[in-house]
Amino acid sequence: MNDRTFDQVTVDDLADVRAGDKGDTLILAVLPRDAEAYAVLESALTPEAVAHHFAVTEPVVRTDLPHLPALVFRVPTVLAGGVTGYSGLDGHGKTLGYHLLMLRLERTR
To answer: Which InterPro entries match (predicted)?
Structure first.
């Protein structure tokens, strides 16, 4: 990936995302499409970037699974009480996976 286009790259350009929930915590699995995409995401898609993108103040936890390959994020408090406690349309957080796909990546090196 050349330097000129890197600042225009979103997660969607490099990966697919699956979303799930545990209580009011959103779980996001980011599945890179190839080894180059994994390397870029491993570097640029930090827990801090995800926390900022979802506007959460509690720490986001990232688990790296390079042999799958995947990056799994635990994003607390996003679902406002979870499936049974959230009055919004998406208590499971499925559309929030799409929200992560729109995150623009910033160069970290």
So the answer is: AtuA-like_ferredoxin_dom
